[in-house]
Amino acid sequence: MNDLSFTILSESPDDAEAIDRLNARTFGPGRFAKSAYRLREEVAHIPELSFTARVGTLMVGSVRLSPILVGETRALLLGPLTIEPPFRGRGIGQKLIARALEEAKRKGHRLVVLVGDEPYYGRSGFKTAEKGRITMPGPADPARILVAELQPGAFDGVSGAVHPDWPAA
Asked: Taking the model in full, what pTM does it have?
């Protein structure tokens, strides 16, 4: 069962409830104490930069991007990335990340931040930010704060606290 056909689709408003249930199942109630979730409580994700993975009509994964500032620099926060446990290890997460980053780059975004494991996210171009260069609003292991430049040099000279950014209406 290694060959799995799945489709990456743009998130639709009808997906919100299913994504919330998926996040609750995969991350549990402890997710609300994490720095990245605190940020996401204050600013909505960007629907056109958020995607789902489906096997047939079954949603098996989701990724979202939200607008943030790192100091005074606009960036995106990747996450949550979530995959139904029986479907993990099949490349779905990497495909979701690739699609989200590709669309963000196409729309002119330059920098993406996340809190996660570098061995996993490094495959998608994320690198550990220098310790102290980015601070999250709450507890976050500095070794897990990662950045991906969508444009060369996008992280040059960037530092500061991460906080929500509200896109212009």
From this structure: 0.89
Residue boundaries of the structural domains of the chain: 7-164
Which CATH architecture describes the domain 7-164?
A: 3-Layer(aba) Sandwich (3.40)
Q: How many CB atoms lie within 10 A of CB 27?
A: 14
pLDDT tens digit sequence for 78-118 = 989 999 999 999 999 999 999 999 999 999 999 999 999 99
164 vs 93: CA distance, rounded Å: 24
Which residue in this structure is represented by tokens 């709450």?
A: 138
Tokens 């299913």, residue?
Answer: 18
Write the CA distances from 79 to 37, 100, 144, 155, 169, integer angstroms.
9, 10, 13, 19, 23
Alpha-helical segments (H) within 28-157: 35-42, 92-106, 118-121
* Residue 110 identity (one-letter amino acid): R
Rounded to whole angstroms, the Cα distance separating 31 from 38 reads 9
- Per-residue pLDDT of 55-66, as tens digits, reads 999 999 999 999
The backbone torsions φ and ψ at residue 60, rounded to the nearest 5 degrees and listed phi first, read -120, -5
Query: What is the rounded distance in angstroms from the CA atom of residue 52 to the CA atom of residue 83?
Result: 10
